[in-house]
């Protein structure tokens, strides 16, 4: 059996369905999939050659936390994050806490983005056009400013490169007007819930991206990961400042070091020094603790007992 370096060999025994920079989805043969979140980290769209221990567990534990808290808003695809539910032929102690067995869905061909603050492409579109995805916004808003109300700004799914914001009409052409209205209501409700919880934890949830799909009965179901630092902008509340691009809660340590390293953002990225790995890891562990109220050990215990 060939072993795949860095994948512990499991990839050789289950069919790969989709692979991102950080996560992989495998087919379990029935109507279930296995999502595995690695400890890889990217910056400036490049995956670092050095991993952040426990990052995959933090992201998986956070998704499971939000899934459990939001079943009253929308059902989700998570069936089990327990290691015992990973098929025996691919089970490995190293996977504990970073796997999710999920229901297969028919994914909508749009990214469901919700923004509560003006950052990234939302800020650029507002500055250039006074509107974001058809939402006319008040004049005079500043970069990183909180919006009067969160807005739903769907985007296309790009296989390579960046997702592109689309208009409501384009989104309606892709999924139908009825489904789009449902997806918007669900996404905004999820954002409002998570943003309030994050605020209480000293974290601003500036924006976040959801993926919705339909189950066999045609109902909308929340898929993918949910409200993680990889699918969202998490800002430390005490560092929030207008007219800036606030530091991300998790990656600022890494970015600051990369900025000082002279690296020009073309691959390969440099190996990260131990203090950058430790500092970044501590930020993930802190985000997990602040949001869930538990140490990560509790999550690993939950997945292994
Ligand atoms: C599915 N992605 C995105 C890409 C990843 C994830 N429950 C589901 N049913 C069917 N398809 C998907 C899901 C989920 N989640 C999601 N691609 C397919 C994606 C790359 C890596 F982890």
Topology:
Elements: E1 15-19, E2 23-27, E3 32-37, E4 42-43, E5 46-47, H1 55-69, E6 78-80, E7 99-103, E8 106-107, E9 110-117, H2 120-129, E10 131-132, E11 135-136, E12 146-152, E13 155-156, H3 168-175, H4 177-200, E14 203-214, E15 220-223, E16 232-236, H5 252-261, H6 274-292, H7 296-304
Antiparallel strand pairs: 1-2, 2-3, 3-7, 4-5, 6-7, 8-14, 9-12, 9-13, 9-14, 10-11, 14-15, 14-16
Helix pairs in contact: 1-6, 3-4, 5-6
The chain binds ligand PZK.
Label this structure with key terms.
305 residues; globular; binds ligand PZK; 7 helices; alpha+beta; single chain; 7-stranded antiparallel β-sheet
Low-confidence stretches are none
Q: Provide the structure class.
A: alpha+beta
Count of helical regions: 7
Radius of gyration of CA atoms, rounded to a whole number: 19 Å
3D shape: globular
Helix content: 25-40%
What report would you give on this structure?
The two termini are about 30 Å apart. The chain is about 30% helix and about 25% strand. The protein contains 7 helices and 16 strands. With about 300 residues, the protein is α+β, with helices and mostly antiparallel strands. The longest helix has 24 residues, at about 175-200. The strands form 4 sheets. Strands 8, 9, 12, 13, 14, 15 and 16 form a 7-stranded antiparallel β-sheet that branches. Strands 1-2-3-7-6 form a 5-stranded antiparallel β-sheet. Strands 4-5 form a two-stranded antiparallel ribbon. Helix 1 runs parallel beside helix 6 (about 275-290). The model has no long low-confidence stretch (mean pLDDT about 95). The structure holds ligand PZK.
């Amino acid at each position: 059996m060939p072993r795949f370096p860095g994948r512990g060999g499991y990839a050789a025994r289950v069919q790969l369905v989709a692979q991102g920079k950080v996560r992989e989805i495998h087919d379990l043969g029935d109507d279930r999939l296995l999502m595995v979140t690695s400890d890889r980290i990217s910056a400036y769209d490049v995956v670092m050659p050095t991993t952040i221990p426990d990052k995959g567990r933090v992201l998986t534990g956070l998704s499971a936390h939000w899934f459990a808290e939001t079943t009253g808003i929308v059902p989700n695809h998570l069936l089990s994050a327990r290691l015992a539910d990973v098929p025996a032929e691919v089970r490995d102690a190293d996977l504990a806490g970073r796997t999710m067995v999920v229901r297969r869905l028919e994914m909508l061909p749009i990214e469901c983005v919700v923004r509560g603050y003006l950052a990234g492409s939302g800020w650029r579109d507002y500055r250039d056009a006074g509107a974001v995805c058809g939402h006319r916004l008040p004049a005079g808003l500043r970069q990183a400013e909180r919006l009067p109300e969160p807005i739903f700004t769907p985007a296309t799914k790009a296989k390579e490169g960046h997702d592109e914001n689309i208009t409501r009409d384009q989104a309606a052409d892709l999924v139908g007007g009825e489904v789009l209205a449902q997806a918007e209501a669900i996404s905004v409700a999820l954002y409002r819930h998570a943003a309030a919880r994050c605020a209480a934890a000293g974290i601003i949830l500036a924006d976040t991206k959801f993926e919705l799909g339909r189950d066999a009965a045609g109902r909308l179901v929340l898929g993918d990961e949910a409200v993680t630092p990889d699918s969202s902008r998490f800002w430390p509340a005490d560092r929030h400042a207008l007219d800036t691009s606030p530091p991300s809660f998790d990656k600022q340590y890494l970015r600051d070091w990369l900025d000082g390293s002279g690296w020009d953002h073309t691959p390969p990225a440099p190996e990260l020094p131990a203090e950058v790995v430790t500092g970044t890891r501590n930020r993930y562990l802190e985000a997990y603790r602040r949001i869930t109220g538990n140490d990560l050990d509790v999550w690993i215990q939950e997945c292994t007992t």
